[in-house]
Design a protein that fits this description.
569 residues, mainly alpha, Arp2/3 complex 21 kDa subunit ARPC3, Heat Shock Protein 90, 5-stranded mixed sheet, two-stranded antiparallel sheet
Length: 569
C-alpha cells in the first residue's frame, strides 16, 4: 500500500525517519517530497519549480533543434526522460512545472495555445502515470538494479506512458492540420518511439548517476577509460562515414554495450548510452548527416536501433547487478556459517574440556566411598556406586570423543600426495588379528589413484569404515571390497571411492541419520558397543577435504556400501 504525499508529509513533520542514513535516492523508488514537501519554504518551492520548467524547456528545445524544427522527427524526445527522475525526486508537485516547460516549448514550434496545452498535458500525464504504475504493480527500485525494475521502466513509462502522450499529442496536432500530408500512423509511430527512446536513454542515465556513490580502484578507471575510448571510436565510425540508412554497421556497438554492462553493471550501461547519445547528437548537428523528416525510413530504423540498444544494455546490466548482489549475499551467508561453525566448535571444545574436571572428581569420590565405607554399605549401595563409576567412565569417553570431534574443525589439515593403497595396507595390518578372527578378506579392486589429502585423517576414514564392516557382520565369512568409479549417477564424471561390505545392511530411512554424532541404530552394547561417533568423524574429515560421503544399502541383511569423494586440494 503506497502512502499519499500528505501522509508522507505528516510523517516527515512528525520527525519519523523514512530510511537509515541521508541518501538522495531511497529504496524502492520512494523519492517523493525530498525536495518539495509541506514544510518547504515558499522561495525554495518557487526556485525548484522554475528550475524544472527551465530544464524541461531547454531539453525540449535541444530535441527540436536536433530534429530541425520538427519535434515528431526526433529520434528520442529528451525532456520526457528528464521528467521521470524529476517526478521521482520531487513528487507530483513539480507536474505543473513540467506542463509549463512543455507548453512553452511547443508554442515555439509553432502550435496554437490550445494545441500546446494539450501536448503539455500529454507530456505530463505520461511520466505521472508511469511512476504510479511502476510503484503500484512492480515495486520499482530507483537504481534499476533488478530485471523487474527494467521491465517496469520499459512497460509503464516508456511503452504505456509513451502511448498516452502519443494519443493526446498526435490527435492535437492532426486536428490542428499539422503534417496533414503525412500518414497519421507514421506520425504516431515516430512520436511514440521518440518518447520510448527518451525514457530509456535519459531517465536511466539520470537515475543511475544520481544514485551512485562509487568508490572505485585504479584498475576500474583503466578499464573504464579503455572502454570509453573504444566506444568513442566505434560511435565516430557508425555515426560518421556510414549513411543514415545503413544500419548493419551500427550494430558494432552491441558487443561493447554487452561488455560494459557485464563488467560494470548499470554504470557501464549508462556510460554506453550516454556516449551513444552524445555522439549521435553532435554528429548529426555538426555534419548535417541523417537529418530526418517524419516520412524518412532512416528515422524508423534509427529509433528501433536505439530502443533495442537501450533495452539490451539495461536488462543485461540489471542481471549482472542482481547476480553480484546474490554473490555478495552468498559470501555473507558462507562467512556467517563458517563463523557459526567455528563458534560451535569452540563452544563444544570448551564445554567438553570444562566438564571433564568435575567428572574426575565424581569418579574419585565414588571410589573413595567404596573404599572408605566398604564395610558399611550393603550390596545395593555398592552396586549403585559401581553404576555411578561406570556411567562416569562412559561420560568421559563421550566427552573425549566430543573433544576430538571439535578439534577436527579447529586444526588445519596438511595435505600431500598419498597412495591410498599404502594407507589401506596400514589399516589392514593394524586390524590383521580382527580380520582373521572374523574370517574377513579385504580386496582392493584395481589400482587406486594417488590423491592429495591428509594421510593421517584419510587413514582414520578407512580405519573407521573397515572397522564398521568388521563390527556389523553377521555372516561366517565376510568380504570387504574397496575401489573407485567415475560413473556414479550422483556425481557423474567425478572420482568416487567406495568401501562395500556384506554385513547386516541399513534400512533406507536410517541412511542419513547414521552420520550424526552419537547416533547408534542398535542397543548400547550390541555389536561390540561404541559411542556412535565414528561415522560422524569420518564425515567431518571428508568435508574438511572438500568432499562428500553417503551410504547405500539394498536393505537389512544385504550389506552396505559407503561412497565418498576426495577432491584434489
Amino acid at each position: 500500500m503506497h502512502k499519499s504525499d500528505a501522509q508522507q508529509d505528516r510523517e516527515l513533520s512528525a520527525g519519523r525517519p523514512r530510511a537509515a542514513g541521508r541518501q538522495l535516492f531511497l529504496q524502492k523508488g520512494d523519492l517523493r517530497n525530498l525536495c518539495l514537501r509541506k514544510g518547504t519554504a515558499l522561495p525554495q518551492k518557487i526556485i525548484t519549480l522554475l528550475l524544472v520548467t527551465a530544464i524541461y524547456y531547454i531539453s525540449a528545445q535541444a530535441a527540436i533543434i536536433w530534429a530541425r524544427g520538427i519535434p515528431q522527427a526526433a529520434m528520442l524526445w529528451l525532456p520526457i526522460g528528464f521528467a521521470l527522475p524529476a517526478l521521482l525526486l520531487c513528487g507530483n508537485r513539480v507536474a505543473p512545472a513540467i506542463f509549463m516547460g512543455s507548453f512553452l516549448a511547443n508554442l515555439g514550434v509553432p502550435h496554437s495555445v490550445p494545441v500546446a496545452a494539450c501536448i503539455g498535458l500529454g507530456n505530463t500525464a505520461a511520466p505521472v502515470f508511469g511512476i504510479w504504475a511502476m510503484r503500484r504493480f512492480l515495486d520499482f527500485n530507483n537504481d534499476i538494479n533488478r530485471p523487474k525494475d527494467v521491465m517496469a521502466l520499459i512497460f509503464f513509462p516508456a511503452l504505456l506512458g509513451g502511448a498516452i502522450d502519443t494519443v493526446i499529442g498526435v490527435a492535437s496536432v492532426y486536428l490542428e492540420g499539422f503534417h496533414r500530408h503525412v500518414a497519421l500512423v507514421r506520425i504516431a509511430w515516430h512520436w511514440w518511439m521518440g518518447d520510448v527512446n527518451g525514457t530509456l536513454f535519459v531517465a536511466p542515465i539520470m537515475l543511475v548517476m544520481l544514485n551512485r556513490k562509487l568508490s572505485v580502484s585504479k584498475t576500474f578507471w583503466r578499464e573504464a577509460a579503455s572502454l570509453i575510448i573504444g566506444l568513442v571510436i566505434v560511435c565516430v565510425l557508425i555515426f560518421g562515414p556510414l549513411p543514415p540508412e545503413e544500419m548493419s554497421g551500427k550494430f558494432l556497438i552491441f558487443p561493447l554495450m554487452i561488455l560494459a554492462a557485464y563488467r560494470f553493471g548499470q554504470a557501464g550501461t549508462i556510460i554506453t548510452l550516454l556516449i551513444t547519445l552524445v555522439s549521435a547528437t553532435v554528429w548529426r548537428i555538426t555534419t548535417g548527416l541523417g537529418i530526418y523528416d517524419v516520412s524518412s525510413e532512416a528515422l524508423t530504423l534509427s529509433q528501433i536501433y536505439l530502443a533495442t540498444l537501450a533495452m539490451t544494455g539495461l536488462f543485461l546490466g540489471a542481471a549482472v547487478a542482481e547476480r553480484r548482489k546474490l554473490e555478495q549475499q552468498l559470501r555473507q551467508y558462507t562467512q556467517a556459517l563458517e563463523r557459526s561453525n567455528r563458534e560451535l566448535d569452540d563452544f563444544t571444545y570448551i564445554v567438553s574440556h570444562d566438564l571433564k574436571e568435575p567428572l574426575r572428581g565424581l569418579k574419585r569420590f565414588s571410589q573413595f566411598l567404596l573404599e572408605d565405607y566398604h564395610d558399611k554399605l550393603d550390596d545395593d549401595g555398592k552396586s549403585k556406586l559401581d553404576t555411578i563409576s561406570t556411567l562416569v567412565v562412559r561420560l568421559e569417553t563421550l566427552l573425549d570423543t566430543l573433544l576430538y570431534y571439535s578439534r577436527l574443525g579447529r586444526v588445519e589439515t596438511a595435505v600431500s600426495a598419498v597412495r591410498l593403497e599404502d594407507i589401506i595396507k596400514n589399516v589392514t595390518d593394524m586390524l590383521a588379528i580382527s580380520l582373521k578372527e572374523k574370517n574377513t578378506v579385504v580386496e582392493i579392486m584395481g589400482h587406486l589413484p594417488v590423491v592429495r589429502c591428509n594421510p593421517v585423517r584419510i587413514q582414520e576414514v578407512f580405519q573407521n569404515l573397515i572397522g564398521n564392516a568388521l563390527k556389523y557382520n553377521d555372516k561366517p565369512e565376510n568380504r570387504i571390497e574397496i575401489g573407485f568409479m567415475t560413473d556414479h549417477p550422483k556425481v557423474p564424471g567425478e572420482t568416487v571411492f567406495y568401501v562395500r561390505d556384506q554385513g547386516i545392511g541399513i534400512a533406507e530411512k536410517h541412511l542419513h541419520a547414521i552420520f550424526n554424532i552419537f547416533k547408534r541404530l542398535h542397543a548400547q552394547n550390541a555389536y561390540g558397543g561404541g559411542t556412535g561417533s565414528g561415522l560422524a568423524i569420518v564425515k567431518k574429515i571428508i568435508r574438511q577435504h572438500g568432499g562428500d560421503i553417503w551410504a547405500e544399502s539394498p536393505g537389512e541383511g544385504q550389506g552396505t556400501t559407503f561412497y565418498f569423494t576426495i577432491p584434489q586440494i
